[in-house]
Amino acid sequence: MRPKAERRHLASRIPEFRALVPPLRDLALRRRAVPLLYLEITGLDGLRPTARKAALRSCKSAVAAALAASAGSVLRRGDTVAAGPNAAWFAALLVGRSIDLARRPVAPDADLVVAATRLRQSVLAAFREEAARGAIPARAGVRAGWTIVEPVDLSSALSELRHAVRGAAVVARIEERRAAFLASVTHELRTPLTAIIGYAERLQTGGGTTVGRMRHDLAIIESEGRRLAWLVEGLIDAGAWGAGSLRLRTEPASIGELADAAWASVGLRHATRKMKYVRHGDATAAADRERMLQIFVNLLDNAARHAKAQVSVSIASRAGKIRVSVEDDGAGFAPETLRDFARPFAVGPLGHLGLGLSIARMLVEAHGGTLRASSRRNGGGGCVIALLPIRDH
Questions:
Q1: What is the CATH number of the domain that holds 324?
Q2: Helix and strand tally (H, E) in the chain?
């Protein structure tokens, strides 16, 4: 491990962004394209200006150490690295992997994904060391992107670099969302799959299981199977919604009956906690029954996971809208959760990604409504409110 003094000295070796211009001009003269890797520091929002500046200095030292460790693997001889303003991001021209434009067209290279991932992991490892000694917040992270720069005009090399960095930054955000999506789906699938396999194995082995216990286990398997089916349908609907091709099959539906049907499934999963379910009011709306049922399953399951003893649903028609509130008696929503409530792939304070809530929000909006959350003042607890339009059936 490098001495701290040497590691601090490494940061001074990373030049400013303009240092990438000379090698890019040289590549333009030789008609070669060059891959560019991009690293952007994250997790420092909310720090005071002085603390943020100090954290960025420590992050820069950590990045420098990671770059030095990557020499000979990710980075090759001739590669050039530079820092953006305030060292909030970094760019590396992979000159050693430049491409001759006269011989073959430029195409995205799968190796760039691997290179960006390895460099990101190396930086994260260095960040963990800095966080362990209190130099940066533990939440500090980095996102990575890449692009191919095709230098054309020698006089506009700096402008071309800026465009390339912006493009790589977009890729970094897309990749971050993709990774969050995969993590969220994995998290959501793991729980029902584990339950289905566990209860199925218990039924197979027998072990003196009574008829009542067998029925209970089969009910759990059916409930978790439906949960998986709803998740898959929700993901399909999310894709259709994003493509503008989601079609609802609306008909007159009792909102109260759908809420009760959803709790019949959700309550079974939380049966050991003996949760109380209360529903007040009802209203009839033009709704897609299956998708409205999925909305309630997601909202009630989220409420039950955080409730102490009770989940309640209130339904009323007000000002030309149907107001549905799902409440629990738990600790309520954290401020950061309210800020990003049901936003796709938003990471909560406990690291949960809330795929179910984002699907619920999408389906409510598909019905022409809105979904929002608040923390109850009296007695605590969380409250999710869906406003649905009243339409002719």
A1: 3.30.565.10
A2: 10, 12
